[in-house]
Amino acid sequence: MVSGKPGAHAGAIRKSRNILMTATAIGLASVLAAAGPAQAEDEQVKIGFVTFLSGGAAGPFGVPARNAAELMIEAVNAGSLPAPYDSAGLAGKQIDALFVDENSKQKNADYQKLVEKDEVDMVLGYISSSSCKAIAPEAEKAQKLTILFDCGTPQIFEEIVTDPKYTFRTGAHATMDNVAAARYLVDTGAKTGSYAGINQNYAFGQDSWRDFSAAMSQVAADAEIATEQFPKIYAGQYGSEISALLTAKPDVVHSSFWGGDMEAFVIQGSTRGIFERAKVVLTTGETAMHRLGTQMPDGTVIGARGPHGDLAPESELNSWFRKAYFDRFGTLPTYPSYKMAQALLGVKAAADKAGSTDQDAVIGALRGLEWEGPSGKVSMALANGHQAIQGTAYGTYKYDKDAGKAVLVDVVRYGAECVNPPAGMNSIDWINSGFEGAKCD
Amino acid sequence: MTKSFDKTEWGLLLALPVLICLTFVLPAWVVNYIHVSLGTGLVALGVMIQMRAGLVSFGQGLYFCVGGYTAGLAGKFLGISDLFALLVLGLVASVAISFVLGFLLRRYREIFFAMLSLAVSMILFGLLSSTEELGSTDGFNLPQATYLGWAPEGDLGETVLYAATCVVTILLAFGLNRILRSPLGYINEAIRENELRVEYLGTSARQAVHITYVIAAAVSATGGVLWALALGHVDPEMTNWTTSGQFVFVSILAGVGNIAAPLIGTFILEIVRVYAVEISPNTWQMILGTLMLLTIVFLPRGLWSLTETARKKAGSNGSAQVVAGE
């Protein structure tokens, strides 16, 4: 560098400048090109979709949700859905979709950009409860219709936004999964002398265990907690926790593990016999049942965070959805796909009912709305018509050797009002009060 | 006094009114990105002043998070929403923690310093993620900021918070520039070059590193307070290694040539990310990665070195031969 080859050095600088400039030019050109086809705005309704497109939650949740969104948007635009959704578009307007990665540090700034720069008519998305907590107040501030489709924390309308005007959630919150799991064990006559939990040490895992153990002390009063294990999320290795479960000898093992962690637990736990010695309840087991096939032990209790996937009741819409999804993506839709489809159909039902995609009209129609999703009836019953409730179901896993595929037997369905708190009541208070006002058949 | 202002300081003083006026000129979403970039930019500044001493902190998210959570906890449990009080609390917490940790960290250099700072930040991540009372991984929300009893709401509230963020950021950048020009700043550069000689010359390298570490922590925590107030939400992701990695990423991308580089670099990176997501939502990381690679290959001293080559070219009247051979 001192005296060596001065010309080369200057040349390198010039070259690097040129490359950078070219890169910038290409970047700018593509931005401008992307901004091009913005005509015919009046006939379109622009929706910003936010799900995980990268990171750990993309595989099990974000991408299946995005796939379902793509499928549903095409079908809605073409009007190829079964009745009553067979009219094209949202109140006649075509959907123009915009996808954003939820895996971002600046979620609120990204949200504002969607609202102000991209001028979306509504935002539909958010899988992580942390995102929802940050976005819900932002949506109220920005006065933009925002539909949360998946995140589970009951806090959204119980603590964060207590008087929502623009925020909706079209999926039931996580309390339902664990209350129904406890009820299912009792209803199917499982032995419940003692129970144990293995849940990830983060918000969803802690809340799930809290709700499940509270529900168990209501439905099976003399059941005792054998052990509670909280391994780290994404740990992948559960040798010592499985040992602890085996020594504690519980009758029931509850787990809200999801995605890769759950599959790892099933594979590691089944080889060590935990599934034979105890009744294992997997509240999100549905996403793995077809992937694991024979590796999943028979008799495992499987949930899908709602009556989704294999737990969905038979209907024309459900068969259409499963077939269309399978034909396009080569796998069956899992519950994130169902929840996305459910959210979009809710929007369609509201817009069609209002006969307009005007924000106030859609909000007015969506508040307190009831509609049929691929997994049955959804009603916006809580939080002044902004929070959905839905029935749920649990089943027991069985591998059907003749057909060569996994099936669920002993499916028990629970009505929405049996496993969800009534309006104006906090979830945990409701469980501890002995499910006050619950209507079960 | 004024004659001792250098170019950077004049630049910073000029930038303050310009930054604040931007809120009336640019669309709100851009101002919003500037706002959050100033918060995270301060943390990148903290990384950068340590880089001057040859130390790469892979755990600066620790103090970003300490700042954010201090503000959050004060709001949640003590009902404090006053910006000035929150800034002071964030400062006190970060200085106390970094002073104690500094005794350990000042003994390590290079990869050992990087790994140890990373480890400490991940301990906090683990603690916060498993604390149900603090919302675990979901975190919790912060109240709207107030100013000595004045509580502006809505758009005005955001503008005031933005202006306050600008003022604090510029003041801190100004102060840090002074520190870089002070004996401590030069000792740090000497430590990077040859620590042994620094010791022979009669200065304690460890003490200098300790002081730098505490200063970096204080700046980062301030960034954390401001960022958390802008977002209205904190979660343990703030101290996850991926967040810390981004601060290092920014420092490398922007370069350590000037105090303004990490602030501007953070914003540029943010905007590039926004457009990358818009162009290709599924593979935007590839665009960022390519940019990073191009920068390292062609601008090993960061984007800021572009301004230096431009200045040299102008100064030497086009005779690149002389410049290169200096």
Reported for the largest beta sheet of chain A, the result is: 7 strands, mixed
Catalogue the unreliable spans of chain B. 318-326
What's the arrangement of strands in the largest beta sheet of chain A?
A: 7-6-8-9-10-14-15
Chain-averaged pLDDT of chain B: 86
- The coarse overall form of chain B would be globular
User: What separation lies between the terminal Cα atoms of chain B?
Assistant: 33 Å
Identify the strand order in the major beta sheet of chain B.
1-2
Helix count, DSSP H or I runs of 4 or more residues of chain B: 13
Count of alpha and pi helical runs of chain A: 16
Largest sheet of chain B, if any?
2 strands, antiparallel
Structural class of chain B: mainly alpha
Radius of gyration of chain B: 20 Å
Spell the H/E element sequence of chain B: HHHHHEHHHEHHHHH
Structural class of chain A: alpha/beta
Q: What is the general shape of chain A?
A: globular
Share of helical residues of chain B = over 70%
Strand content of chain B: under 5%
Overall number of strands of chain A: 15
Strand content of chain A: 15-25%
Task: Give a structural overview.
The complex is a heterodimer of chains A (about 450) and B (about 325). Chain A is of the alpha/beta class. Chain A is about 45% helix and about 20% strand. Chain A is built from 16 helices and 15 strands. The termini of chain A are far apart. The N terminus of chain A is likely disordered. With about 325 residues, chain B is mostly helical. Helices cover about 75% and strands about 0% of the residues of chain B. In chain B, helix 2 packs across helix 9. The longest helix of chain B is centred in the middle third of the chain and has 28 residues. The C terminus of chain B is likely disordered. The interface between A and B is large, with 55 and 51 residues.
